[in-house]
Amino acid sequence: GMIWSECKEIWEEGPREYVVHLWNLLDFGMLSIFVASFTARFMAFLKASEAQQYVDQYVQDDDLSNVTLPPEVAYFTYARNKWLPSDPQIISEGLYAIAVVLSFSRIAYILPANESFGPLQISLGRTVKDIFKFMVIFIMVFLAFMIGMFNLYSYYLGAKYNPAFTT
């Protein structure tokens, strides 16, 4: 339903006007990630179905630990920590988690209208901007200190102990 709603909004406003509002981009991105997640989950389902068909067709033993399976079928007998990082099920779960976080961030679109939460959201947004400004200054000082220490110690690379720097 939300995908249809976004398509209607793009049709009514036009693509150029639709992209101007950042909330529309958030909605479009969230829905795209949900679709990618469900597509990856469907691909994982198809791969598992093929493996199950192979087992149903060619394996007579009920205990799969005694049977030699092809690698693409044996893969589904492994524990999840041994799965490949590119497995569609793992990708699907990661994308779904990101999409859920983005869907909860849509609440921020409604909050400014509330008399209690609106000012809090505005002040939090300004506070976050100030924190980022502070972090830029902090990183610049840290980087300068790091470069200075590197220049000081670069002549002693590999030395475990140098009496010149003990005090």
From TrEMBL:
<dbReference type="GO" id="GO:0051480">
    <property type="term" value="P:regulation of cytosolic calcium ion concentration"/>
</dbReference>
<dbReference type="InterPro" id="IPR002153">
    <property type="entry name" value="TRPC_channel"/>
</dbReference>
<feature type="transmembrane region" description="Helical">
    <location>
        <begin position="20"/>
        <end position="40"/>
    </location>
</feature>
<dbReference type="GO" id="GO:0007338">
    <property type="term" value="P:single fertilization"/>
</dbReference>
<keyword id="KW-0812">Transmembrane</keyword>
<keyword id="KW-0472">Membrane</keyword>
<keyword id="KW-0813">Transport</keyword>
<keyword id="KW-0406">Ion transport</keyword>
<dbReference type="GO" id="GO:0070679">
    <property type="term" value="F:inositol 1,4,5 trisphosphate binding"/>
</dbReference>
<protein>
    <submittedName>
        <fullName>TRPC7 protein</fullName>
    </submittedName>
</protein>
<dbReference type="Pfam" id="PF00520">
    <property type="entry name" value="Ion_trans"/>
</dbReference>
<dbReference type="GO" id="GO:0005886">
    <property type="term" value="C:plasma membrane"/>
</dbReference>
<dbReference type="GO" id="GO:0015279">
    <property type="term" value="F:store-operated calcium channel activity"/>
</dbReference>
<keyword id="KW-1133">Transmembrane helix</keyword>
<feature type="transmembrane region" description="Helical">
    <location>
        <begin position="131"/>
        <end position="153"/>
    </location>
</feature>
<dbReference type="GO" id="GO:0034703">
    <property type="term" value="C:cation channel complex"/>
</dbReference>
<feature type="domain" description="Ion transport">
    <location>
        <begin position="3"/>
        <end position="153"/>
    </location>
</feature>
<keyword id="KW-0407">Ion channel</keyword>
<dbReference type="InterPro" id="IPR005821">
    <property type="entry name" value="Ion_trans_dom"/>
</dbReference>
